[in-house]
Amino acid sequence: MSQKKTHWYNEVSRDQWKSLNAATIGYFLDGFDFNMVNLLLVPIAATFDIPLVLSSTLISAAYLSRWFGGLMFGAIGDRFGRKVSMVTSILLYAGGTFICAFAPSFWVLFAARLFIGLGMAGEYSSSTTYIMETWPKHLRNRAVGFVVAGFSLGGAVTAQVYKLVSSLLEGTKYASQDWRLFFMIGIIPVFFALWMRRSISEAQDFSEMRVQQKKLQAADPNYVPPKDMFSVLFKQGKLRSIINTCSALVTIVLLVFVFLMSSKLNLIQSVLAWIVIFATIMSYTRQFMKRRWPIGLGILVIMVAANLGNGPMQALMPTYYSTALHFSTGMVANLTSVFWIGQVIGCIVVGFIGDKWGTRKAYLIGTTASLLFLAPVFMINRSLMDKGFIWMALFVICLMAYETAISFAALMPKYIGNFFTTSGRNAGVGFLINAAGLGQALAPVMTLSLANAVFQPLGLNLGWTLFCIVLTVAMVIIICLAINLPPRLLKLIHPDELRKQDWSDFDITSVEEQVKLDKK
Length: 520
What we know:
By secondary structure, this protein is mainly alpha-helical. Helix content is 78%, strand content 0%. The protein has helices at residues 14-48, 52-55, 57-80, 82-101, 106-132, 140-169, 178-197, 204-219, 229-234, 238-260, 267-289, 293-323, 329-357, 359-379, 382-385, 389-406, 412-417, 425-436, 438-455, 462-482, 485-493, 511-519. The radius of gyration is 23 Å and the shape is globular.
């Protein structure tokens, strides 16, 4: 008599489902905040009587601090536990959001956005690391996909909430302050997240790592567990601490100049600033990863490319809808929701593909498939849509299909996490993802500059700029994933540092084996 097949969701315990929900809501808040700021730039500029250009720096503000937030909360997660990092990051996010709602001036609002950036960075590193160390190994791709889907769901909800709040306050004396109400609404799910996280258990792999480390300490009194990233950079030698502190401060100042005063910098100055910023990031990567730093370099190349492609699509598609396609505000909000819903679907689907065929292969499949739908999204213009409903329907279908495919990048935290042992995974994932996130902040500015300097003089609209940039970076990503760039670089520079896990698309190394690798 054959055994009854067990469905995958029955293999997940109640506590593991609870952990998934607690991690997902953090990403939901991030997506809600990301799209919210994009929609509120105009009313904020009107409230404080400032140019729209200055108001738009609120987007960049979060990125100014995120790279350091990934390092800081990553180190907290590796030293004190994933749960501690998740709770403290959401508290910082909550504080920043509260200040935003009642900010008396633009610069108070700007400072609050810096704190939100730190909290967001903590969510990026801790939530995905926590869930990939909590769920069963053969289901961890879909667990990460579910969590990252929260970001896209937050983006979709934001567009509809914005439309609702604007319509309710339209014509009232509070209409000009509707953005404050929006930030207040954003605080509500924060309290829900804290309530959900209050009773979750520590990540299973992290707890097992501590047990294995204690066994090694009992057997070898000279054994010292690996230091967290913050301790490596700022607490290991006076000279190193001074140099790293100074480089961190210089990097922050340069980021302020690059994002807030870009109009005052010429091309050479901007390039030199980015060289110094990247040198700092690589220096920190090398100190933390030691001889395995080529892995970090390969990850940064892939992640920066992904952000340069996805950043303009997320930030500038609403502008494309209104300026090139001449859609109404309501239609822009609806298409923005379609955009994000496509990503929700992709995040969920890719998890199942990743668990079956492997993390890297799933991301490669999605990026390749996205190119099939990219051209139709920008080839179907308003004149074609006016000829019949079929063209509008085809546009929406292609837009959703493209976003579904491109969101296979949701597995990047899992892909990155496989290159780190449990002792350094939280910081490794958090720092590299958030440092590469600077590309997402740079992407809209770069796209608009190219549109104005190159494409508009040729009579081509914003859509052509987006198409060319996204196509180029997609090809870079496909090549990097096809050759598995991170371990390929390590093999070229330090082949003796390669591990069997580096070439595998699946988790094949136990926590006990990882602790032994840390000891070497």
